[in-house]
Specification:
The structure is a single chain. Helix 2 links the parallel strand 1 and strand 2. The protein is an alpha/beta fold. The termini are close together. Bound molecules: N-carbamoyl-L-aspartate (NCD).
């Protein structure tokens, strides 16, 4: 039987090459099945997923819940974390212990770094981190890697632009962790200086053997890229509103910019977009962010299935 190397999924660092292989193989099956009737070799009938969201979400919560429904499982949901007993002062670790009584797997999103790990401390069912502050969003990184794999047929020897809020975006931190392990990958980091990737993180990724360069010029850098991964400036993470105002419109991907890029460039974005991608490019072949959002369901189905087997 296929097993994963982790019980709780809290950080992309935990995900091994063999985990990726197992998750992608199953996601491929679900994607090609085309119809929910054909999911029989991997279902979660009778199991319950609890989703606990203490921060805004559309894609992540819905795709997790849809994934569980497609596996014939059930979902209980705390849409507004603020309406839970955490509001009364209950700790996250107690919440994890208690909610474990009512479900078989927990998905949690919370604004504090380390919150998912705290919730997992006494949980007796697997816990999945769906975003802990600016830290990690490991399931998004699996979706992103899977999208790259489907689009490029490889995850090696790619030139990847990372654009926008490299300081606060947990999606950036998580996908870089996975991509930097594959040989030959070359990153170009493009951000305003105040939103640059943390030096310790950069060194950690470089230690895997990838190349990382920094650029302030998107127009020049875009020419060589195979993937351009853009992010929203994470307004809610700024301690100082004025700092956000200075950088909120720092980049915009439009037709004029894409005319300088390779035809095979894949523009990706975890979404939501605010101002960084012009709607006029949505129908261009380079725009891959809606496909990426669609793949979320297959990856989360595979994860929910595999994490509730062991
Ligand atoms: C991302 C997140 O929540 O970190 N969204 C998502 O899960 N698809 C990106 C973002 O909010 O900017």
């Amino acid at each position: 039987m296929t097993t994963l190397s982790f019980r709780h999924l809290l950080d992309s660092k935990q995900i091994t090459e063999s985990d990726i292989k197992n998750i992608f193989e199953l996601a491929e099956k679900y994607r090609h099945a085309g119809n929910a009737k054909n999911y029989a070799d991997g279902d979660a009938a009778g199991l319950i997923l609890a989703t606990l969201f203490f921060e805004a979400s559309t894609r992540t919560r819905f795709s997790f819940e849809t994934a569980m429904h497609r596996l014939r499982g059930n979902v209980i949901s705390l849409e507004q974390g603020a309406s839970s007993s955490v509001k009364k002062g209950e700790s996250l670790s107690d919440t994890g212990r208690i909610v474990s009584n009512y479900c078989d797997v927990i998905v949690v999103r919370h604004p504090e770094i380390g919150s998912a790990a705290e919730l997992a401390k006494h949980a007796t069912v697997p816990v999945i981190n769906a975003g802990d502050g600016a830290n990690q969003h490991p399931t998004q990184s699996l979706i992103d890697l899977y999208t790259i794999f489907c689009e490029k047929k490889t995850t090696n020897n790619l030139r990847i632009g990372m654009l926008g809020d490299l300081k606060y975006s947990r999606a950036i931190h998580s996908i870089m962790e996975l991509l930097s392990r594959y040989s030959g990958n070359h990153f170009t980091l493009i951000s305003p200086p105040s939103l640059a990737l943390d030096r310790a993180k950069k060194e950690q990724f470089e230690a895997y053997g990838c190349k990382i360069e920094e650029s302030s010029d998107l127009e020049t850098s875009i020419k060589d890229l195979d993937v351009l991964y853009a992010t929203r400036v994470q307004e809610e993470r700024f301690p100082d509103r004025m700092e956000y105002e200075k950088v909120k419109n720092c980049y915009r991907i439009d037709k004029q910019l894409l005319s300088k890029a390779k035809e095979s460039l894949a523009v990706m974005h975890p979404l939501p977009r605010i101002n960084e991608i012009d709607y006029e490019i949505d129908d261009l072949p380079q725009a891959r962010y809606f496909v990426q959002a669609n793949y979320a369901v297959y990856i989360r189905m595979a994860l929910l299935y595999l994490m509730t087997r062991s």
